[in-house]
Specification:
By secondary structure, the chain is an all-alpha fold. It has helices spanning 20-42, 49-64, 70-106, 108-122, 127-135, 137-141, 150-166, 169-181, 184-196, 200-216.
């Protein structure tokens, strides 16, 4: 019987042998979920985790590859870079942005300011104060320090602060939803938090993670 040989083809993996890259992708997915949950609880990006992610993915590929080579090292480094970028975006969207919203919700100064805007828009101050606001536009226009409008502003702020103090969680949540979630502030908040997720120190941890994956992916411990 004539044996047909195919030159240049890659040998087939033995039955049951798992793909190192697929295993690392699955591990990376789990890492992203855990990272998001950790950041959500701590209200912090935990940038140091990037180094550990690179090391973990490098070890997975390096240990499962038969044998580990420079090619598997490159795979580990590229997968680590992609995993870290996806993780950073997921942390911002699902952890840090909600955390920022929670902090706004719990911040008395912020909620007092929002109630001040809301009460001024709806003419919802106490009758006497609202009457003064409606009949004395000159006081509203006066913005000088210790000017005639200063006492009026203090009364408005005081009533808004008291309203915020007695507001229920649902009322504060509704207010934040109206003035944060449905305005440009949400987009600004996203980019602000995203920039903070890529500080020089964060980039350092990411670089160390990718370098560790490159080395460990080649089976070099």
């Amino acid at each position: 019987m004539t044996t047909v040989r195919v030159y240049g083809g890659k040998p087939k993996s033995p039955p049951g042998e798992r793909s190192p890259l697929l295993a690392a992708v699955l591990v990376g997915g789990v890492v992203i979920i855990v990272w998001v949950l950790l950041a959500r609880m701590m209200h912090n990006d935990v940038g140091l985790a990037a180094w550990g992610v690179g090391g973990l993915l490098g070890i997975v590929i390096g240990q499962m590859a038969k044998p580990p080579t420079r090619a598997t090292g490159r795979q580990a480094a590229i997968l680590t870079a992609v995993t870290l970028l996806v993780a950073k975006l997921a942390v911002v969207v699902f952890a840090l942005q909600p955390a920022l919203r929670d902090e706004l919700l719990q911040n008395h100064d912020v909620t007092s300011t929002l109630f001040l805007i809301e009460m001024a828009r709806n003419h919802a101050f106490s009758p006497d104060l609202q009457h003064t606001i409606d009949t004395r536009p000159d006081l509203i226009r006066d913005s000088s320090f210790m000017g005639p409008g200063e006492e009026l502003r203090k009364q408005m702020v005081s009533e808004a602060s008291a309203r915020a103090q007695t507001a229920t969680h649902a009322e504060r949540d509704q207010l934040v939803n109206r003035y944060y979630d449905k305005t440009l502030l949400r987009k600004v908040g996203f980019w602000f938090v995203l920039i903070l997720a890529f500080t020089p120190l964060d980039l350092l941890w990411m670089g160390l993670g990718i370098a560790s994956a490159w080395k460990l992916g080649q089976g070099r411990l």
